[in-house]
Design brief:
This protein is an alpha/beta fold. The longest helix is centred in the last third of the chain and has 17 residues, at about 160-175. A five-stranded parallel β-sheet has the order 3-2-1-4-5, with helices on both faces. The chain contains six helices and five strands.
């Protein structure tokens, strides 16, 4: 029955309702990249969390977001590339699973398992599910509804329609591999 629910949610469960009620319990902020404009917006959100709301937590970020933050902001880990190489010798595509795996390898041994997740609103669900599959406890959800799609990014992150098509397929792959 659990599998059927997980299969169904691949198609019908999308945006998350903001909830910051447990943020004070958080131990780490994890940021998942999403296209040029989206990454800049999420970096600004992280900067505000740290500077104005005094969440001086370790940052575990995909490089796409980290590049827009000041160098003096302490980053526990910046995930820059996939650990595995493809048949052509180049690193594989840096996907949500690989970001979560690298962040978990760095954070969990240090006892950092209560996380604030920062992600594009249409990518948020899979990021949360995947982080949970890696052992993180999500302490709440930020309102990222204003984070845009970007014209200079890949085909799937240019607009909501194409991202939704890709996201459904990605969720099915993640479900089949036990990543959500």
């Amino acid at each position: 029955m659990l599998f059927l629910w997980k299969l169904l949610r691949c198609f019908v469960v999308w945006r998350m309702r903001p909830d910051m009620s447990r943020f004070k319990e958080a131990q780490v902020i994890i940021g998942y990249g999403f296209g040029d404009y989206g990454n800049q917006a999420m970096a600004n959100l992280i900067r505000k969390l740290v500077q104005y709301h005094h969440y001086s937590l370790p940052l575990a970020l995909q490089w796409d977001i980290a590049q827009y933050l000041p160098d003096d902001m302490e980053k526990l880990i910046v995930v820059e590339r996939h650990r595995e190489l493809g048949v052509d010798g180049n690193p594989l595509y840096l996907d949500t699973e690989e970001v979560s795996a690298q962040v978990a390898n760095k954070c969990l041994p240090q006892g950092l398992k209560k996380a604030i997740i920062v992600a594009h609103p249409d990518h948020y669900r899979r990021c949360v599910w995947n982080a949970q599959a890696h052992g993180f406890e999500v302490m709440g959800v930020l309102d990222t509804s204003w984070v845009p799609y970007g014209p200079a990014t890949g085909w799937a992150s240019k607009n909501r329609f194409w991202f939704t098509v890709r996201e459904i397929l990605a969720r099915l792959v993640y479900l089949s591999r036990g990543w959500v």
